[in-house]
Automatic annotation (TrEMBL):
Transmembrane segments: 12-31, 43-65, 77-101, 121-143, 150-168, 174-197, 227-247, 259-276
Lineage: Bacteria, Bacillati, Actinomycetota, Actinomycetes, Micrococcales
Keyword DNA damage: no
Keyword list, A-Z: Membrane, Transmembrane, Transmembrane helix
Organism annotation: Herbiconiux gentiana
Protein name per Swiss-Prot or TrEMBL: Uncharacterized protein
Keyword Protein transport attached: no
Length: 294
């Protein structure tokens, strides 16, 4: 195994590890706070550092391992959206999180005032760092042609950053009220879209996984295509039910909390998606490098 292959495989394992960290943090914290109405609500507990760090790490890893073609564009967009889930908390109501004072000027749910400075800094850093990253990619492509293949991804990132910046600047109250949910739905929706892309790919003639990567990879085996299709359908259904629970005012229901269940299922399906991706692409150290060598 080469160093490149080892790095590639470790990155794939690390993405699954970030979800494991989120699960452990939620379980450990629940012994102190009780079970909350959603995973997102744990932002207001001591689990916050783990949740934010895991989501940011996952976004970087997804960006690195996004692949090629339509999948690359979709996963790059998901990776750029993911930090918004981490940095902008979900609105909560009074009593939703033990020990957290919630006083909303209007409505029954809001982002508590004492965390607003953290959100402001987080969003500012996200926008500035994202703009710098896009600028570096464009500058490298213009100066030497290096990284020209990343220009589509840079365009996707610039679009996402522009939307976030406009929403945050022009309607900050609406941003705080809806950005977390919107980002989560977009993120998992993009993952579902990638699963659909893989599900409709023509089947491999041999029905087996490709043994070694090439510049032109064989399409996924039939069992993988079927698995991607089932996963996409399950993820879309789960997202629809979870959003419906939020919009109909059942976000804080108990026994069991519907949003908590929906988020848990979405994360589990994301892990399944990444396991399928890793099974299919385990021997692909870097498709872009392989294409350049061919």
């Amino acid at each position: 195994m080469t160093a490149l292959e080892r790095t590639y495989r470790n990155g794939r394992i690390a993405i699954g590890g970030t979800v494991l960290l989120i699960g452990i943090a939620v379980i450990v914290t629940s012994f102190r706070t009780g079970v909350l109405g959603s995973i997102s609500a744990y932002y207001y507990t001591p689990a916050r550092n783990v949740l934010v760090g895991a989501l940011l790490a996952a976004s970087v890893a997804i960006l690195v391992l996004s692949g090629r073609g339509a999948q690359r564009a979709l996963l790059d967009a998901a990776a750029v959206v993911a930090p918004v889930i981490a940095l902008v908390p979900t609105p909560v109501g009074a009593g939703a999180v033990p020990g957290v004072a919630v006083e909303c000027a209007s409505g029954s749910r809001c982002v508590p005032a004492d965390v607003l400075p953290d959100v402001q800094v987080g969003v500012a850093v996200y926008l500035i760092a994202g703009a710098l990253a896009v600028g570096v990619v464009v500058a490298l492509a213009a100066a030497s042609g290096a990284g020209r293949g990343a220009l589509p991804s840079a365009g996707v990132a610039a679009g996402v950053l522009a939307i976030v910046a406009a929403w945050w600047t022009l309607a900050p109250d609406a941003f705080l009220a809806g950005a977390h949910l919107a980002a989560a739905v977009v993120f998992f929706g993009l993952v579902a879209a990638v699963a659909v892309v893989n599900a409709v790919a023509p089947p491999s003639r041999s029905g087996a996984l490709p043994a070694q990567p090439t510049a032109h990879r064989r399409p996924p085996a039939r069992w993988l295509r079927r698995s991607y299709g089932v996963l996409a359908a399950a993820l879309v259904l789960d997202l629809a039910l979870t959003v419906a629970a939020v919009l109909t005012g059942h976000a804080d229901d108990t026994a069991p909390p519907p949003v908590l269940m929906g988020e848990s299922i979405a994360l589990a399906l994301f892990v399944v998606f990444w396991v399928l991706q890793s099974a299919e692409r385990w021997d692909d150290p870097d498709p872009a490098v392989l294409a350049a060598r061919s």
